[in-house]
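User: Batch of two.

Assistant: Item 1 of 2:
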Amino acid sequence: MNILTNKRLQLLSSAALFFVPMMSNAPASAMEAVSPLQDGILAEEQSSPEETELDLKQAELLLESMSLEKKISQMFILTPEMLTGAGTVIQAGETTRSALEKYPVGGLIYMSQNIVTEEQFTAMARDIQSYSLELTSLPLFLCVDEEGGTVRRVSGNLPLIPEVPDMRSVGQSGDLEEAYETGALIGSYLASLGFNVDFAPVADVVTDPKASAISDRSFGSNPLVVGNMAAACARGIREQGVYATLKHFPGHGAVEEDSHLSGVISQKALIQLKTEDLIPFMIGISEGTDFIMAGHISFPNITDDHVPASLSHYFLTDLLRDEMGYTGLIVTDALNMGAVTDFYSPGEAAVMAVSAGADLLLMPEDFKAAHQSIVEAVRRGEISEERIDESVRRIIALKLTVEPGKEGA
């Protein structure tokens, strides 16, 4: 049970403040789509105070047992190749265990190359989780990019796993139940394999038809429709025992460039973000999303610089945390993408991301350099250890909601 659940109704009230400018001009059909989401929040089971207090105490005890280096390790999500230094990884043996003992990272992300058969992957997931529990008393976040459509690592790769359509076609249906069922399908086969985190669904609003980087990965161009479709899909994923992730905050739907290849700049003003791109994220926050992925998009008309949102204190802390009220985990988009590596060293990007407020750093270009740079930044006082503890406390608290003996959430 997510210990943050009891804040969801409060977050719904906060979300309403963001919705007012948009909803005053929204079509009735879009506004009506909000009701099922609100009903779902009101009906959701709440954590008891006793459960919450127990989880918090356990999280504190685990946090206190960790060295600074191990706490910082928990803030990284790597490919198994990045962790072990091996070639293509399709099993978890002594090399994996030794690497995890030295660097007890928060999670691993798997690509198509790591998934050969269902039996092979489930065995690998089971083994790596047993190592993690033995070494840290915590499970790993086992992650994958499984959106459906063109972005999938599992669907279509294994013969018994059905292919999932792109989210544009789901959005065009106008059917929240279809969005939910799509998420449930994705979540069910991911959970059966041992995954517990899906870096999906996309919550970007395609406000510019030239935004080819997102295109049919988005549910559409209406912020309320996208928000409710993404929330329904995320709910379907989550109810199968897999954490869902809304991405790419604060919105990648109005840029043509691909952040995998180069820097991406949006000329939007803050009022445009609040009445368009941020709406789906506020809906997701109201529903209690556990992960939000920050994109590598810069907004010079908002911050007066070209620092990408994923490394920006304004976007991650001032806006997402303080103004929008988000209390879940913030994960960066992959830090080995051109939008980061063209401008920052692995160490610089890692320190900036943590200083900005990110909890989890995904796929740095050089993990050991990134890890060491954060350690050194803490030791020289650039980053406080309390800041590290803040993120690791969130990570541990969410990991404690993973049921014992089960790979999924």
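Item 2 of 2:
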Amino acid sequence: MGIALKEQGKLEEAIEAYNKALAIKPDYAEAYYNMGNALKEQGKLEEAIEAYNKA
């Protein structure tokens, strides 16, 4: 779901979807990685690095 939203340019919605997935499965590395990519596209580099580190 998050990837589809990101591909549509809906970055905020994608990040929300990744956060929901992580609330259910906190060790879901792929969600952190994808969230990092979405944050990077928004120019939120510090937040992106945090997400990548968690992945």
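The CA atoms of residues 19 and 32 lie 9 Å apart.
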